[in-house]
């Protein structure tokens, strides 16, 4: 009885720009699948396009992965650095008779295609060198092409798309090694996946056609074919392919907008995958539940309202220390000033009363403005409207009563309500000038929470400032 191979998945982004949100979701699916099965999740940087690949883009990929919490096993692999291994495999296929040297020039190929288009016939290039006698080979530059099967079908058994068949007479003899000795993407991907021990290739369904051609390399080398799982792309709310016109498409943009990583993981996991009717879940639950059978075939649509709703739930549920750490990272990503030690300490005390119903970190920080600001407070115009002569007089009357009060809600509540009642007011009428005095804002956490967070001395000082 054969022992099943341990699960090994990978993500293989190209460092030619920012990390797309679709790439992040693909990475997440691979990470969840491997982590939930005690397997390995690997990272390969597909940097063979030397003109467009940049160190900055590679750094952005690593930052995006780290922000999302998608830790990978082993060192990240550079595809470019494996190019000699790729060339070695191409020559091995040549020796096996699964590939051949093609001496056709680019001009000859273009002339063939132009003629085929004019005559409205297939432009699929059939090289005359496929079955040529090696003795007739000229001393000239050549590429190495695969010998694609000419009859029958190539079948891809896909865990998401089902059984997908390709007519072999529609497959070309793809180039695997260029005339300058550099490998093509189609070869490099297969060699790397094999050498890295990848058992499951989970990637976007825009690669589905590639699977038919890449499977030829596995067959030619006698290698185990991985489990294929081609997942639908992410569309915008309008049902069209996600682009800049829909809003942010880069992972780091979402961090800079203040979405928590746990909320992003939750939302991206749910985007095109389902486990019953579960919407809010932790990463541990996702690892336990995630399976390829739960991935739908239809493109998923990005819904910012759902994203914000889930992020709000994660902010409310998160541990305060972890939340404070992530807010610190958010400020760096957004290019906003860092918190002073005093502000960080104050925010830590305030989190319990500001993290509920905040969908993003900017919203949370706005709610926490009262503890992040310093005297003298700048009072917003709409909040200042409540500080008329009557309310200022009440604040002036209130402060002596707070001097010797126990600083608990149970002790403060009767003092405030009795002061309001003495002027024929409900507490709600007193709350508005108190909010203005304590936060300089009209919308704030509860007056009692603000008083408890900023403390007795600061509360009295702010009330005295507002009373004038």
From TrEMBL:
Ranges that cross the membrane: none
Catalytic activity: tRNA(Glu) + L-glutamate + ATP = L-glutamyl-tRNA(Glu) + AMP + diphosphate
Main location: cytoplasm
GO MF assignments: ATP binding; glutamate-tRNA ligase activity; tRNA binding; zinc ion binding
Residues noted as binding ATP in the record, renumbered to the chain: 244
GO terms classed as biological process: glutamyl-tRNA aminoacylation
Classification via InterPro entries: aa-tRNA-synth_I_cd-bd (IPR045462), aa-tRNA-synth_I_codon-bd_sub2 (IPR020751), aa-tRNA-synth_I_CS (IPR001412), aa_tRNA-synth_I_cd-bd_sf (IPR008925), Glu-tRNA-ligase_bac/mito (IPR004527), Glu/Gln-tRNA-synth (IPR000924), Glu/Gln-tRNA-synth_Ib_cat-dom (IPR020058), GluQ/Sye (IPR049940)
Residue intervals of the Aminoacyl-tRNA synthetase class I anticodon-binding domain: 337-466
One GO CC term on file: cytosol
Domain Glutamyl/glutaminyl-tRNA synthetase class Ib catalytic intervals: 7-308
Motif ('KMSKS' region): 241-245
Record flagged with keyword Transport: no
Top EC category: ligase
Localization, UniProt: Cytoplasm
EC number: 6.1.1.17
UniProt motif ('HIGH' region) ranges: 13-23
Oligomer status and interactors: Monomer.
Family, as annotated: Belongs to the class-I aminoacyl-tRNA synthetase family. Glutamate--tRNA ligase type 1 subfamily.
Free-text function comment from the UniProt entry: Catalyzes the attachment of glutamate to tRNA(Glu) in a two-step reaction: glutamate is first activated by ATP to form Glu-AMP and then transferred to the acceptor end of tRNA(Glu).
Name by which UniProt lists this protein: Glutamate--tRNA ligase
């Amino acid at each position: 009885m054969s022992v099943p191979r341990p699960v090994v998945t990978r993500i293989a982004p190209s460092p030619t720009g920012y990390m797309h949100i679709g790439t992040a979701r693909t990475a997440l699916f691979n990470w969840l699948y491997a982590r939930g099965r005690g397997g390995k999740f690997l990272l390969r940087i597909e940097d063979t396009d030397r003109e467009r690949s940049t160190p900055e883009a590679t750094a952005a990929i690593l930052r995006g992965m780290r922000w999302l919490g998608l830790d990978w096993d082993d060192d990240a692999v550079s595809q470019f650095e494996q190019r000699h291994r790729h060339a070695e495999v191409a020559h091995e296929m040549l020796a096996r008779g699964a590939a051949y040297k093609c001496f056709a020039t680019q001009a000859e190929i273009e002339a063939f295609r132009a003629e085929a288009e004019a005559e409205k016939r297939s432009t699929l290039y059939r090289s005359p060198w496929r079955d040529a006698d090696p003795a007739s080979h000229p001393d000239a530059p050549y590429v190495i092409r695969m010998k694609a099967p000419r009859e029958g079908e190539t079948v891809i058994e896909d865990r998401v798309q089902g059984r997908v068949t390709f007519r072999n007479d529609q497959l070309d003899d793809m180039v695997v090694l260029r005339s300058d000795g550099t490998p093509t993407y189609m070869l490099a991907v297969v060699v790397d996946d094999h050498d890295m021990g990848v058992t499951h290739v989970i990637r976007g369904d825009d690669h589905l056609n590639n699977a038919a051609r890449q499977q030829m390399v596995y067959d030619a080398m006698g290698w185990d074919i991985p489990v294929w799982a081609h997942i639908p792309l992410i569309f915008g709310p309008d049902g069209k392919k996600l682009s800049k016109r829909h809003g942010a498409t880069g992972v780091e943009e979402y961090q800079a907008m203040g979405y928590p990583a746990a909320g992003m993981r939750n939302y991206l996991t749910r985007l095109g995958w389902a486990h019953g009717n579960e919407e809010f879940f932790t990463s541990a639950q996702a690892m336990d539940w995630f399976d390829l059978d739960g991935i739908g075939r239809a493109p998923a649509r990005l819904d910012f309202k759902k994203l914000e709703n889930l992020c709000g739930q994660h902010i409310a549920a998160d541990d305060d220390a972890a939340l404070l750490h992530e807010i610190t990272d958010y400020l760096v990503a957004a290019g906003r000033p860092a918190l002073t030690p005093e502000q960080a300490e104050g925010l830590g005390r305030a989190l319990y009363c500001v993290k509920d119903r905040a969908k993003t970190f900017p919203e949370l920080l706005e709610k926490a403005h009262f503890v992040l600001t310093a005297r003298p407070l700048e009072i917003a115009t709409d909040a200042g409207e409540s500080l008329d002569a009557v309310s200022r007089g009440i604040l002036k009357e209130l402060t002596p009563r707070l001097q010797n009060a126990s600083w608990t809600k149970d002790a403060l509540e009767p003092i405030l309500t009795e002061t309001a009642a003495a002027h024929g007011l409900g507490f709600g009428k007193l709350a508005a000038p108190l909010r203005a005095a304590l936060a300089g804002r009209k919308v704030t956490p509860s007056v009692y929470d603000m008083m408890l967070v900023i403390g007795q001395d600061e509360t009295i000082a702010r009330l005295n400032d507002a009373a004038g």
